[in-house]
Design goal:
about 350 residues, alpha/beta, Nucleotidyltransferase, domain 5, 2 domains, 7-stranded mixed beta sheet, 5-stranded mixed beta sheet
């Protein structure tokens, strides 16, 4: 009798140390250790991130294995994030995965972080209480996926688990970076994106107008928006030092709506050009409540079938790495001990 396919996934691309266990495509454990040390600096400090990964990696992996109720000898392969990401952070996860795989004499599976975000839509959860698999509807191929995070903004045509084509991407800054930079300009604590989402719920998104860049094809640009927003805040606070405090909700709602309008405009164009109506989102910014609400509105207005991941799979996590590893395992797509992390790793 063959052993069940159990995959350990490891994610360490930025400032979250994560480990997950997938058994026959079903998630058994997903453990994440966050790094609060970066809050005082207003952003991720790479050297501090890599040191924290070194402290967290063993406890996180140990916790995931115990939570899953398996033994390390049951693991058939280790999937890890090879890139893209911070080199120091990636080195910790890659080195641990290689060492652990060598010790257990099992294969290694390298995973592109952005591919993992997209395949998070295929994670299935097992409810131990009911002893049933929680069925989560996944998109059918082909579909379009808008991947939006702090480092990436892309529209991807997904034809298969491993056949993906980038139709458009940012030519400078990412949408998530625009959110965080806008928050920093308003002196909101890091990470600022979720705070903009929070305050925007009480604001008027039409109160302030910001320039939307005119970029060819399906590409994006957010650097000009960031500069325009900074100039706007500086100009208004020069006239009234309490401007941000007095208008915070409206400012947040307006800048958030502008970013979402930019994303939706390109996504609608992509859907028309490809004649595809199965639309998914992925990445940290996909946790934004207004973006999610807008997509559901598009589903009603344009006849789309929208797929939005659970909040726990929006931000960086190891479940998405493990499920990608599972599908790669099924294809015998392994890497070697000579593999090295890549700060830049094209999808």
């Amino acid at each position: 009798m063959s052993k069940p396919i159990i995959i350990l996934g490891i994610e360490s691309s930025c400032d979250d140390t994560a480990a997950a266990i997938i058994k026959e495509g079903k998630l058994l454990a997903n453990v994440i250790a966050n790094q609060d040390v970066h809050r005082q600096y207003g952003g991720v400090v790479p050297e501090l991130a890599s040191r924290a990964h070194q402290q967290n990696i063993i406890p996180v992996v140990d916790s995931a294995i115990k939570k899953a109720g398996v033994k390390k000898e049951d693991i058939l392969a280790i999937a890890f994030t090879r890139g893209p990401g911070l080199m120091g952070s990636l080195l910790v996860g890659t080195s641990f995965a290689k060492s652990f795989a060598m010790g257990l004499n099992i294969p290694l599976i390298e995973v592109n972080h952005m591919q993992g975000h997209i395949l998070a839509h295929f994670i299935k959860e097992e409810s131990k209480a009911a002893n049933q698999i929680i069925k989560v509807e996944s998109p059918t191929f082909p579909f379009l996926c808008l991947t939006v995070s702090g480092g990436h903004t892309q529209i991807v045509l997904v034809k298969d688990y491993f056949e993906m084509t980038v139709l458009g991407e940012t030519i400078d800054d990412a949408a998530g970076e625009a959110f965080d930079k806008a928050a920093k300009i308003m002196n909101l604590p890091y990470p600022g994106g979720p705070l903009i989402d929070k305050y925007a719920k009480e604001g008027n998104p039409k109160r302030f107008k910001f320039t939307k860049p005119q970029i060819d094809a399906l590409n994006f640009s957010f650097s000009g928006l960031k500069t325009g927003f900074m100039n706007f805040i500086n100009s208004e606070t020069a006239k009234n030092s309490d401007f941000v405090k007095e208008n915070l909700a409206d400012i947040c709602a307006s800048i958030q709506q502008t970013i979402i309008d930019i994303l939706m405009s390109k996504l609608k164009t992509a859907a028309l050009e490809t004649d595809i109506n199965h639309i998914a989102i992925a990445g940290g910014v996909s946790a934004n409540s207004q973006l999610r609400a807008t997509l559901y509105q598009m589903e009603s207005e344009l006849g789309w079938k929208v797929f939005i991941p659970d909040f726990s799979y929006c931000t960086d996590n190891a479940a998405m790495i493990a499920i990608t590893g599972y599908y790669k395992y099924m294809k015998n797509d392994f890497t070697t001990q000579a593999t090295k992390p890549l700060a830049r790793y094209a999808l």
